[in-house]
Design a protein that fits this description.
- The protein contains 8 helices and 10 strands.
- It is of the alpha/beta class.
- It has one domain (2-239): Rossmann fold, CATH 3.40.50.1360.
- α1 (9-26) packs across α2.
- The strands form 2 sheets. The chain has a 7-stranded parallel sheet, sandwiched between helices. It has a 3-stranded antiparallel sheet with strand order 4-8-7.
- The longest helix is centred in the first third of the chain and has 18 residues, at 9-26.
- The protein has helices at residues 9-26, 38-52, 80-87, 109-122, 159-165, 184-188, 203-211, 244-253; strands spanning 2-6, 31-34, 62-65, 67-69, 99-100, 128-131, 153-156, 178-181, 193-197, 229-234.
- The two termini are 18 Å apart.
């Protein structure tokens, strides 16, 4: 695992976007796993700017999102399909037929999970999965005690997640209580993972995920099991880490990071 700490949120976001853009430039038919949430909006804004400036081409990129609410159609402003279109897909040169999310309106939930897994597998797997982390340590909607071997499936949300996300719904109680999510095992099958964590509110859970024990109570800690992970944090989110000196030493001295310093 590589842990990179940048002084500001803006710098952490920009580094994350550059890592994605550079990976796509190296492999134009890239398979990109995407996340949603407030943290990612700035990443997508940077990628839109890079695309419009001719710095990255999405024309052959295929995307797979982590999750989608059950019961929301794609045109619902609170669906993650709507979020992705609004924040990224509508503004870059991507073929929307190559952008994939679970179908929140699927009649057969088990079959939908299997369909999504097959779609990822049939295209050769995800080259890079972008992740955030929830306040309780969840990745995707893999809530505490989710199996670390889990696959894409329907999942009940915790009361904490419900309260946290319901502020985006009007009225708040209209938020679905269930969602489709890639499993932890699905995420770990990605060839590379880039996790972005920003803000002082995430400092405690960031430390648990990066330096704590691997546990299903903090599904984000499963990234420790992956052989190719980069975690990018701003200074505030890194406040609880104990190995900061080493992380900074690696970033300052390893040749692979020279172009990003």
């Amino acid at each position: 695992m590589e842990v990179i700490i940048r002084p500001t949120t803006e710098q952490a976001v920009n580094l994350t976007a550059r890592l994605i853009a550079d990976a796509i430039k190296a492999k134009p038919d890239f398979k990109l796993g995407l996340a949603t949430g407030a943290t990612m909006e700035a990443v997508y804004a940077d990628l839109v700017k890079m695309n419009k400036a001719g710095e990255v081409d999405f024309s052959r990129v295929i995307t797979f999102n982590l999750d989608e609410y059950i019961g929301l159609p794609p045109e619902d402003p609170n669906s993650y399909r709507y979020y992705m279109n609004h924040n990224l897909f509508d503004h870059i040169n991507i073929d929307k037929r190559n952008t994939h999310l679970p179908n929140g309106m699927a009649d057969d939930e088990t079959a939908e999970g299997e369909r999504y897994e097959s779609a990822i597998r049939d295209c050769g797997g995800i080259d890079l999965q972008l992740l955030g982390i929830g306040s309780d340590g969840h990745i995707g909607f893999n809530e505490p005690i989710s199996s670390l071997a889990s696959r894409t499936r329907a999942k009940a949300l915790t009361p904490a997640t419900y309260v946290q996300n319901s502020i985006y719904f009007n009225p708040p109680e209209s938020m679905p209580k269930r969602a489709f999510t890639m499993g932890v095992g699905t995420i770990l099958n990605s060839k590379r993972i880039v996790m972005l964590i920003t803000g002082a509110k995430k400092a405690g859970i960031a430390a648990k995920a990066i330096e704590g024990p691997v546990t299903s109570m903090v599904t984000g800690s499963a990234i420790q099991l992956h052989p190719n992970v980069v975690v990018v944090l701003d200074q505030a989110a890194a406040a609880g880490l104990t190995q900061t000196e080493y992380y900074n030493w690696v970033f300052a001295n390893e040749p692979e990071w020279a172009q990003y310093r």
